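User: I'm writing a tutorial on reading structure tokens. Could you give me a worked example: one chain, its sequence, then its tokens, then a sentence or two explaining what the tokens reveal?
Assistant: Sure. Here is the example chain.
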Amino acid sequence: MEKSNFLKGLGGALCLFAVAPLTMAQQPLQYHNDLSVLGTYIEPDDERTDDYGSAFRVSYGIRLGEKVWVEPTFFAGIIETSDPVRTDYYQQGLGADLAYRFYRDNQFTPFVLAGIGVSRNDVADNPADEIGGFGNVGLGFMTSEISDSGLRFRAEARYLYDSYDDGLSDIHVSAGVSVPLGTTRKEVVESVKYIDKPVIVEKEVVAQPADTDRDGVVDGVDQCPNTLIGLTVDAVGCVRTTEAQSLVLLGVTFDTNSDRLTANARDILDGTAQGLKGQPGMRVELSGYTDSRGSDEYNRVLSQKRATAVRTYLIRAGVSPVQLRAVGYGESDPLYSNDTAEGRERNRRVEFNVISQ
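And here are its predicted structure tokens:
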């Protein structure tokens, strides 16, 4: 058989295969890999033999993009020879092809491919048996699914150049099936939703005026912003200085046996400073206290240092020094029992006392 006649026949066969998918239209599967198992007819190079060969081919397709695939492939076959001097060829090949499928998971998907690999030709009476290389180009097509599992028909033709025996050119024509791996069937389900007509109820929403410092006086009227929570204010939001008021600065704590403020205490005093700067006419005594552990004199000195540390911090935060005085009262006037750890902790405190004018 001459190769020109063979190629004409191959073109006719591919045309027949092309009309087959028109009767196989099904809902497509979405998948990323497939496995193809093909039977192959080999039209060998005239320098090899005038007969034919047969083989099987396995290709594993891996999707790289919308239409681009890489296909590791293996084939093994026998090329017959009627020459009484030479035995049949036993040929194997392992390689990889880069394929371009023109339509993604379509009912009829033509493709082209090209690849390279390693070949082995085994001829018993030829000392030139060797492992060499091959390159091939091809074209083919895949049909739509022919079963619920996603099985597809695949046919292809390849021109294969084998480096064996100074170079031989063969033509491989293959047909078989391709099985999708990791499939998800894409279905369109018609659904009807019944939506009740919404009932719109109009409700007048009255915006509440803002009261940032939560002293009961809205911001538009408040003349003394950032008032400390817990102090009584007048009609314009300023702390009443005509009456004595006392407030424990919760969270203002110190390192053990030290007048050094903790990080949490400094955060609280930053807010206290804003309230004092918002009412510069207010005078405050910062009263320091300790628990009952230690001598009276030690506790008095320590409480004075702690009250002074609070005053110093507030002045550095922008409060006028004339607004503040610091007094240490030691372990006097406990608020809780000093017999428990919790009570002693609460007795170690600094009070914010508004000085009545």
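What the tokens reveal: The longest strand covers residues 130-145. The CA atoms of residues 207 and 263 lie 38 Å apart.
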